[in-house]
């Protein structure tokens, strides 16, 4: 796995500070265990290379272009590696998904998030963290998005999602349906769209703030860690789409007084890495 930090939060609108997250998530990862019960694998047996942080301009559109250029270069040089990005705010996903679309076939984006991020613009900025998925839908097709855990959105976002037939499962529905049904729905989406490459983006506010308090825009009634991690693991491990890039975004260390959000972000990356290894081996995990 190749790790890249993206310390950027220029459009943060509530609780800025996610530019500090690459450091705190790395520190957390260095101090938690690497054995995955889901995969039955000791991830210490696998190589992880840290490529450092991307230095970014402040202007959002320019930042997106630089992220795209760097991530595309890394994907091209290391075609057999999983790339893990540590944000940073959610606007970074536009640049990195654009890079995947340049390099890989038929990419799709599985998003765990409390928010749709489908506003046409936010605070007069079209490249805002609140507009990132709108830009991705416009550029690459709304059918390539699937949300898990959404529960906080503006009316215009709901209308856009319905108009464009974007698939999503709210946090309330996840609990009613259960892990297996949500995984089945995601699998049907992957088959229907014909996804060959999978990008997983985890906004840490997808988790309930009881477990992830240090985020930029916390929302109540989120998902428990075991539930979201089980879903993500099973979708990746059992999917026919090759996992290529993952990101964790929106950790805001100034509001994460106990550090548990950074720890959970590190755990999320490790479980996605474990799922990637299971997918490569063709096994089903533990």
TrEMBL record:
Stored Gene3D superfamilies: Ureohydrolase domain
Q: Supply the CDD domains for this chain.
A: Agmatinase-like_2
Q: Which GO terms describe its molecular function?
A: agmatinase activity; metal ion binding
Name the GO terms of the biological process aspect.
putrescine biosynthetic process from arginine, via agmatine
Protein name as annotated: Agmatinase
Concerning PROSITE patterns, the annotation shows: ARGINASE_1, ARGINASE_2
Going by the UniProt record, its keywords in alphabetical order are: Hydrolase, Manganese, Metal-binding
Task: Please give the family membership noted in the entry.
Answer: Belongs to the arginase family. Agmatinase subfamily.
Q: Which InterPro entries match?
A: Agmatinase-rel (IPR005925), Ureohydrolase (IPR006035), Ureohydrolase_dom_sf (IPR023696), Ureohydrolase_Mn_BS (IPR020855)
Q: Paste the cofactor note.
A: Binds 2 manganese ions per subunit.
Q: Which cofactor does it need?
A: Mn(2+)
The entry's Mn(2+)-binding residues are: 90, 113, 115, 117, 203, 205
């Amino acid at each position: 796995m190749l790790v890249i930090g993206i310390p950027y939060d220029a459009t943060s609108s509530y609780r800025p500070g996610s530019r500090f997250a690459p450091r705190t998530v790395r520190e957390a990862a260095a101090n938690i265990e690497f054995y995955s019960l889901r995969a039955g694998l000791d991830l210490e047996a696998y190589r992880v290379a840290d490529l450092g942080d991307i230095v970014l301009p402040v202007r959002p559109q320019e930042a997106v272009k630089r992220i795209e250029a760097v991530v595309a270069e890394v994907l091209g040089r290391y075609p057999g590696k999983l790339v893990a990005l540590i944000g940073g705010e959610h606007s970074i996903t536009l640049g990195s998904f654009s890079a995947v679309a340049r390099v890989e076939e038929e990419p799709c984006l599985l998003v765990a998030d409390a928010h749709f991020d489908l506003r046409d613009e936010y605070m007069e900025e079209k490249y805002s963290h609140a507009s990132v998925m709108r830009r991705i839908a416009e550029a690459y097709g709304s059918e390539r998005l699937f949300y898990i855990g959404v529960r906080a959105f503006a009316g215009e976002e709901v209308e856009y999602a319905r108009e464009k037939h974007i698939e999503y499962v709210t946090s309330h529905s996840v609990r009613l349906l259960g892990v297996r049904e949500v995984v089945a729905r995601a699998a049907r989406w992957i088959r229907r769209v014909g996804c060959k490459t999978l990008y997983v983006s985890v906004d840490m506010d997808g988790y309930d703030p009881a477990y992830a308090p240090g985020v930029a825009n916390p929302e109540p009634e989120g998902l428990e860690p075991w539930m979201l991690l089980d879903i993500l693991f099973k979708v990746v491990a059992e999917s026919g789409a090759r996992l290529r890039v993952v990101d964790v975004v929106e950790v805001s260390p100034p509001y994460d007084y106990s550090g548990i959000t950074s720890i959970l972000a590190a755990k999320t990356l490790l479980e996605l890495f474990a799922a990637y290894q299971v997918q490569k081996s063709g096994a089903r995990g533990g």
